[in-house]
Amino acid sequence: MENLHDKRKVYEKSQLIESEIKQNPIEQFRDWFLEATENPNISEANAMAISTVEDDGCPRTRMVLLKAYTYEGFIFYTNYKSKKGKSIEKTHKACLHFFWPNLERQIIIKADLERIAENLSDGYFHSRPKGSQLGAAVSPQSEEIPNREFLEEKLKNLEKEYENKEVPRPENWGGYIAKPYEIEFWQGRPNRLHDRIVYELIDGLDWKIVRLAP
């Protein structure tokens, strides 16, 4: 057994206090996200974990990339028939998580999910590099495949088929918008007395702000 008892650090880079936060959590997210994108030690500030609950009741977590955010919610893209897509279609809920260790910050977002309009998925799909478009068309995401060569052969065939043509967006690939109803901002502090500020959506209209014990 490897003993990890001494693997710890002191958090002291910032603080999160009520008198300085935004009243709308999307505006607070925007401020933190901009700081993360401007930090040279954070390579992908838009990388986020997304957790969904599967049929056996166990959550499954994976990393995806945030592609847009508005006052309405957070947008990402995936295969609708993947494990995450199937879970979302069944529960219409997910938890998003951002972790920026260089800033000693994390954000936890509980949200209701729905598909975005097809024309928006079309627009983003065709803005991607052609290789990424072909990859989305090739991969039966989350399904069992015989080997790596299976994918590579399919890719070669599609590259020939669409060499001088536009790649159509697969019907089972597109975007979701995660509409938050709870957002927690966590700021590391000394002595493990971390700051935790939570925004809770009340009656679908107003945000209630509370502080949680660390």
From TrEMBL:
Metabolic or biological pathway: Cofactor metabolism; pyridoxal 5'-phosphate salvage; pyridoxal 5'-phosphate from pyridoxine 5'-phosphate: step 1/1; Cofactor metabolism; pyridoxal 5'-phosphate salvage; pyridoxal 5'-phosphate from pyridoxamine 5'-phosphate: step 1/1
Gene3D superfamilies, A to Z: Electron Transport, Fmn-binding Protein, Chain A (2.30.110.10)
Xref: Pfam families: PNP_phzG_C (PF10590), PNPOx_N (PF01243)
Required cofactor names: FMN
UniProtKB keywords: Flavoprotein, FMN, Oxidoreductase, Pyridoxine biosynthesis
PROSITE patterns the record matches: PYRIDOX_OXIDASE (PS01064)
Domain spans labelled Pyridoxamine 5'-phosphate oxidase N-terminal: 42-155
Domain (Pyridoxine 5'-phosphate oxidase dimerisation C-terminal) ranges: 173-214
UniProt: substrate binding residues: 67, 124, 128, 132, 192-194
Amino acids binding FMN: 62-67, 77-78, 83-84, 106, 141-142, 186, 196
PANTHER family according to UniProt: PYRIDOXINE-5'-PHOSPHATE OXIDASE, PYRIDOXINE-5-PHOSPHATE OXIDASE
Protein's recorded name: Pyridoxine/pyridoxamine 5'-phosphate oxidase
Chain's gene name: pdxH
